[in-house]
Structures are given as C-alpha cells and as structure tokens.
Design brief:
The protein is α+β, with helices and mostly antiparallel strands and about 70 residues long. The protein contains 3 helices and 2 strands.
C-alpha cells in the first residue's frame, strides 16, 4: 500500500499512467486491500491469479493486461 501511495504522491499529475498489480494467489488480506484500492482508482489494474505461478509467469500475465506501451517491473 505504501508503494502505491508513494507512486501517486510522486508522479506528475499530468502524466497518464497505470499500475498493474498481479497477485500470485496470496493467502492473507492482500486481495481485499488491493481490490479496495483498485475500486477507488482507475489507474490501478488488479489481476488475481488462482494459483501461484511464480514471478516470471506473473510478470507476463501483468504485461498482457497492461494498456500502455511502456512498462516497468
């Protein structure tokens, strides 16, 4: 949550950007927290995977749903 808040606080308001969050089947409160953040902000795109596929596949899944032309992991 702090990371997301920092991105919003430190990004120029004139820049159009998207935050893609891929959840690799978290078993804690992460899904509820991120769903709440995404519901309040159109710039947060949340994908929850039903299985932990590992970092690489999760990155690929996130890249597949990203709307922009440039992205950072």
């Amino acid at each position: 949550v702090k990371c997301i808040e920092e991105i919003f606080m430190n990004t120029d308001k004139g820049i159009d950007f998207e935050i893609v969050i891929v959840d690799n089947d978290s078993q804690d409160s992460t899904p509820e927290i991120i769903k709440e953040i995404a519901a309040k902000n159109r710039q947060v795109n949340y994908l929850r995977l039903s299985t932990n596929y590992g970092f690489g596949k999760a990155c690929n899944q996130g890249a597949n749903i990203a709307k922009g032309n440039i992205f950072y992991f």
